[in-house]
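Quick question, first post here. What does this chain look like in 3D?
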Amino acid sequence: MTRKPAYRLIVSLLALSPLAAAGQGPMSSDAAELGVVHWHLPDAAVQAASADTPSGYHEAIEAITSGQYQAAYWQLKPLAEAGYAQAQVALAELFRNGQGVQVSIPTAIRYYRDAARRGSAEAAYRLAAVYASDEGGVARPEKAERWLARAAELGHAEATRRLATLAPRLARSQRPYADPAEG
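> Answer (accepted):
Ran it through. Tokens below.
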């Protein structure tokens, strides 16, 4: 099944939600394939997860799921500028995919980097993916390795798996444990 950028964005943002991060909002594999999410949560879990979420974030995600990308941009921008990492990742995805805004890989990188520096494993992983590819002509394998290592340090399961497959191929002196704050 070929996924469109909007599908990838919606599924990935839902996976980034506070409920999913807390392991309380799993998507079934069938639902994920169809882009449909069914949340089965007690009201207390929804309230607990929502307590730490800034006002406007859920509305922005709803705007994205309904294809209202410009509205989502305007809701996410102040949250991202205020330092809310999940909003930074969501905004980076909008810029990476050109949804509601013009494609800007440098802007996506800035938001991913800011979120990763705030401890977002998903942001570090996505930043590694941008640097590993040639999206926007920014292929930088050494930065990709550093950010992949940072994502693994932050507990990103896929980053850990990918890093483990890369480790045998990297000389001990080349392993990507440098400070990701450099770039």
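The first helix runs from residue 5 to 16.
Residues 104-183 form one domain.
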